[in-house]
Amino acid sequence: MGVGGGAISLLKLAEPFAESRGGTRTTPRCYYHPDRETNITCGRCERPLCADCVKHGATGVRCEECLTPPPRARGLATTRQVVQATTAALVVALAGGLLLGWLGWVGPLTALVLGLAVGSAAFYGGRRHRDAAIQGAAGIMALVGLLLAAVVLSLRGGQAEVGGVARTLVNLPYARFILPAIAAIVGAVLRFLL
Predict the structure, then answer these.
(1) How many angstroms from the chain centroid is the CA of residue 78?
(2) What single DSSP character describes residue 28?
(3) Which of 77, 101, 131, 146 has its Cβ near the most Cβ atoms within 10 Å?
(4) Three-point CA angle 185, 190, 194, nearest 5°
């Protein structure tokens, strides 16, 4: 036992005597409710807790923050994983959308394949995490890729001018792309179930 440990022990022993000799002894106050005195502390972080704030975990008394597992332990993706997954999905969606639009292959089957590719990129970009946020990002990126394919197809077919991409987006025959859009989303989310 070091010198510092012995000094702390002596101080704790001297506390009751200090109170009886007119010294002041402060009672800890709840971390979350400073108006309440308490003698209970969290077994992990040692914050003082009132009776309303005490949570009983498998390993004893805990505060709310220490009892709640971190996002990774709850199965949630971290912000970094979501950003990496979204970036990977966007790259594949843009490349796939350009390719499908240039080849003129915009249909339900090719949209499903695009969705699977985008979903795979998100899955591996997010380090094989199956979080709902990553699945949603994959579905949105699959739609972005399909929309890019539709714009490229319209530009390639001479239906629009290169300078009028905004007009091209407004004048796209969206009814033709409803089924491929559904297929792309299904493909992107389906990849997480495989």
Answers:
(1) 5
(2) P
(3) 146
(4) 165
Same domain as 162, residue 86: yes
Whether residues 140 and 188 share a domain: the answer is: yes
CA distances from 156 to 6, 40, 41, 119, 164 (A): 82, 72, 69, 27, 13
In this structure, is residue 157 part of a structural domain?
Answer: yes
Distances (CA, A) of 44 to 8, 47, 74: 20, 8, 19
Q: Is the dihedral of CA 144, 150, 155, 160 positive or negative?
A: negative
pLDDT, tens digit, 9 for 90 and up, residues 39-77: 888 888 888 989 898 888 788 888 888 887 766 666 678
Same domain, 129 and 50: no
Whether residue 45 sits in one domain with residue 64: yes
pLDDT per position as a tens digit, 104-140: 888 899 999 999 999 999 999 988 888 889 999 999 9
pLDDT at 18: 44
Of residues 90 and 11, more confidently modeled = 90
Please state, in angstroms and rounded to a whole number, the distance separating the CA atoms of residues 144 and 96.
Answer: 10
Two tokens, residue 133: 């946020």
- Inside any domain, residue 36: yes
Task: Give the structural domain span for 43.
Answer: 23-68
Q: How many domains in the chain?
A: 2
